[in-house]
Amino acid sequence: MHNLYVKQKVFKITDHYEVLDYNQNAVYYVDQDFKIIGNTVNVTKADGSGNFVIDREIFTLMPRYNVKFSDGRSFVIKQNFTFFRKDIDVISDEYSLKLEGNFLDLNFSIYDSERLVGEISQEILAWGDTFVIRVIEPEYEEELLALLIAVDDIKDMQQH
């Protein structure tokens, strides 16, 4: 088990930031370019060993993201229509991820079937958006980061 730390800028048109480990070493680089419509985020490992891309689909009623990894894996993150709470599904042939918790405050746990694989929380008293990803099962590290990026984008879209 280990933690990753994400600190985004306060004022942002584009997002370029590092995902850090406990010792403040870069583990991933996140690059989001400015787009009028849609959203594409490229995430690269600091050691150059792999990457993944998150694309928000444009013509959908509810937010939907396609995540594609350099090793061929992929999954879809989609928000479902509900009246009182957020409901987000992860669609994949490889696992059955489920998010539980408070999406508005970006405080939630991620399960594969019944097994807890990670937790994501937002620090309250911090300048800018600051998040902690608690990676319980290391093989899900990239998936947890992709989920944070997508859920944060959903939250940002609903605030603007």
Question: What does this protein structure show overall?
Answer:
The protein has 160 residues and is mostly beta strands. The chain has one domain: Porin, CATH 2.40.160. The protein is 12% helix and 48% strand. The protein has 1 helix and 12 strands, in the order ββββββββββββα. It has one helix at residues 141-159, and strands spanning 2-7, 15-20, 26-32, 39-45, 51-56, 64-69, 74-80, 87-91, 97-102, 107-112, 115-122, 130-135. Strands 8-7-6-5-4-3-2-1-12-11-10-9 form a 12-stranded antiparallel β-sheet, covered by helices on one side. Strand 6 (64-69) and strand 7 (74-80) form a beta hairpin. The longest helix is centred in the C-terminal third of the chain and has 19 residues, at 141-159. It is globular. The model has no long low-confidence stretch (mean pLDDT 87).
Primary descriptors:
single chain, Porin, twelve-stranded antiparallel beta sheet, 160 residues, 1 helix, mainly beta
| Unreliable runs | none
Highest CATH level, the class: Mainly Beta
Number of helices: 1
Mean pLDDT across every amino acid position: 87
Instruction: Look up the CATH topology.
Output: Porin
Strand order of the largest sheet: 8-7-6-5-4-3-2-1-12-11-10-9
Q: Can you count the beta strands? A: 12
Following the backbone from N to C, one meets helices and strands in this order, namely EEEEEEEEEEEEH
